[in-house]
Amino acid sequence: MTGDAWQPLMGELDRWRQAGRAATFWLRDDDAVEPTPALERLLALTANHSVPLALAVIPAFTGEALAERLLPARHVEVTVHGWSHENFAPAGEKKQELGAHRPADHVLASLEQGFVRLRQLHGPRLTPVLVPPWNRIDPALIPSLGGIGLQALSVFGPEKDRGLPAVNTHVDVMDWHGTRGGRDTGTLALEMAARLRQVEAGEGTLGLLTHHLVHDEAVWTFLEALFVRTARHPACRWAALSTILAERGIG
């Protein structure tokens, strides 16, 4: 990894600094269930750099062990990652748990069950945001999410008006369709810089998406280097998801 690989992002942040502005970054990590060595590494890394972390937890398979482990981790919040992260789409379609393949009342009931379970386990640490498994949800379900206590949605890609406020992720560290390891640092830096230009043209944040259970060393190296470069940069603010929601008047 060379300094040149980071130039697009750092150059963009330096331009923001010269303009007297600061961009809001946030971190979402998916598929948490229980304490693992990979989760320990993520918790330590984010704590060392004072980077808030939103953990998308799968309600059906989690329990007291994770809740107890997170008690001292003040920088961590929990979000609702569907119910069981189970695929109900038929062969040949993209995977979905929250698609139109089951009756809507069944899907909503499972989400409410997941929300209640995580609230019981994590109390005020739970931020009432739905993170759909595989970042996919039937649009027809979205207007009903508020009725079960969910206040916002987080998927991957540009935010759209879908009937519920959205705080999305925009850059994924994983090469899902290739090596299934960490993506190239230069490519990620370019994508982050491009997202900052989109934010500058309107409003929003830069959301980074990770999956601690499948990280290779390339991902861990990238995250360490990213936090070193940005956590104290005057044009970058790593914010908690709950803070972003509050600043938007959500909740």
Automatic annotation (TrEMBL):
Gene Ontology biological process terms in this record: carbohydrate metabolic process
Highest taxon, organism lineage: Bacteria
Coiled coil feature spans: none
InterPro entries, A to Z: CE4_u4-like (IPR049591), Glyco_hydro/deAcase_b/a-brl (IPR011330)
Protein name, entry field: Chitooligosaccharide deacetylase
Lineage of source species: Bacteria, Pseudomonadati, Pseudomonadota, Alphaproteobacteria, Hyphomicrobiales
